[in-house]
Amino acid sequence: MSGMQASLALSGYIAASCLLAFLFPQSVLAFLAVQASLVMLYYVAAPRQVKLFLGALLLFVLVPALGWANGYYFEIAIQIGIFVALALGLNIVVGFVGLLNLGFVAFYAIGAYLWAIFGSPQANAFIPGGFFPVSPNWFFVFFLLSIAVGLLTGILLGLPVLRLRGDYLAVVTLGFAEVVRALVNNLDKPINFTNGPRGISPITKPPLFFEPLLQFAGLEVPSAKLYPLYFYFLILIIVGVIILVTRRLENSRVGRAWKAIREDEIAAAAMGVPVVRMKLLGFAVGASFASAVGVLFAAKQVFINPESFTFMESIGVLAMVILGGMGSIPGAILGATGVTILNLQLLKGLSLWLNGLRQSGAELTIPFLGSYSLSQLPAQFEPAKYERMVFGLILILMMIFRPQGILPPSQERKK
Amino acid sequence: MELALEILPQVLLDGIVLGFMYALIALGYTMVYGVLEFINFAHSEIFVLGAFVGVEVMLLLQSAGLLSTLHPAAVLLLVISTGMFISGIAAMALERVAYRPLLGGPRLVALISAIGASFFLQDALRLFESLWRNTFYLNYPSLEFLDRAVPLTAALVIPVKSMLVVCTALVTLGGLHFFVNRTKLGLGIRAVAQDPDTASLMGVPVRQVIALTFFVGGALGGLAGVLFGIHYSLVNPYSGFIPGMKAFTAAVLGGIGNIPGAVVGGMILGLLEAFAASYLSLLTDGAFGAEYKDVVAFLVLILILIFRPKGLLGETVRESKA
Questions:
Q1: Scanning every residue of chain A, which has its alpha carbon at the shortest distance from the alpha carbon of B116?
Q2: Which of A23, A247, B237, B276 satisfies CB 3.0 to 4.6 Å to B126 for a cystine?
């Protein structure tokens, strides 16, 4: 297929899938087709400019248009964006430096709670004066602050444990995540910092600084419709920046040092790589990404509680990185998209479908075996509740059959 | 202060019971680490599997009407031996399926596979119980014999359940000591832990010894699971995570790879946790209560790793191959 034909086929596919998604707003499959076009963009051998143009068109025009027509699509797209950002952060730690961080969600929680506490009336419980919630404009200050806090906690946790062997680190990070969760869960007394298991709400959303512009242009948009669009573009920008930073880091002196450590720590040390300092840096950079994304998550959710920051989440993000390919940026993006879709759309869709079957009470006739009433399907059998099994299978199967992931980093592919 | 002294015997008893349970689980981690230098992350699920096998056997006996007619000792023997056996087999199967293809590769790969196995097993258990009993929170049926208690003094009443845990654990630990130090198979395990290559040259069948280690570690985990179930009654597929983490902490505390170390570490951690659960709120005037006992355990882990990464009894396994 020539480049021309490929570009035409690609454009045709994108147009068709978007049309489908537009015509069938309830269909999970139609939106999946739209999402698949991103993967195709990566694989199809079309000219670079065409790909860039189509990608931009898809991300900046078509998906927002679809989301505008159907808010559910925005929700999915924003969730995917958040997980892509998290997976890219963990990819630095696990993929580049080769450190297994099982408590990644702790940093995410720290960022989320940072904004949740000060961006809601919660902080009034321990700082008198009624200054809180702070004005929405502080969102961006806290976003930057969370990067610093993430770096700092990463360094503080990393300092004692990064000198140890790798598998200890896995367990210590896991323990750290449990400590953070226990603290968040219980620090509603003696002084109420986190409001405990009840969670914090309402959390201030980021400022609509462009609202005067819209009014100037004579557009009246209800903010309920505006916020999803706003969050979509915010997360798009954040993911873009993270990709940029990660790529620059990967090809820098630091990135090469990280990979040297991953391949052989002793050889790297012999070559003059400051091993502990570099590990610490990688660990802290990953943590700062997670913490920054946490701020956005809190602002988007409006309500957060400790339930959002369980060990499950850490493993989910790890599964994304492993599935895509450790150390590969496109891999992390693909893995995050794939696992999020699997979780949010496929498993839930399957559960709904089974529920429908159950209620329909249809008879399933299998030749030679007799018939089976579908209303007898056990009520406990709900695919959406078995995400652990799915993550577990992803991890084991990938490790046994394709440890380098679906999209391994380019250097490894050349070998 | 008087209150503190009054509850002391009870706290000690709780700590000892908990400590033996941690010790039994920690042995599974430490033995596997000894021969493979690898954290068997799914060991906590082997432990839960033991608890589930135990409750299933008891429920089956109950539905067959045998639970009340059989002698309690026979019931316990049956429950414990089935739980140990199935957990041991499961641990061996796990090693065969999820670990053996990966050993020799980077350590991260095997560790990730182990984490995957842990998650998979949790939901596999849940799925099985959901389809079989339509619920995955199971209660151990009560045995009249086990619900008794022996009053020792006015302040200290020892439930039969606690005595069962302590006695079974002591007998098993004695048996393990004999097995590892006095039998040929135990010698094989020690040889592989010291140096698998040399052991292999001396004619030790390394693979079989590794499988055997998984079986023994799994059986000890299964025993801990059954005892956990009998002692605390309620089990669910996810109840292994926290005890598993703590048992690992105990193994590190005692020096991972070191068998007596696992017992010492388990005991210390169990006592520490019981003390934290009871005295933290007394010490801090109610500001911090028993809910921080998990935090205490993890802080202990981090502190040991900073100040004494080889654990209290040092490391008897070989140095890292890297």
A1: A392
A2: B237
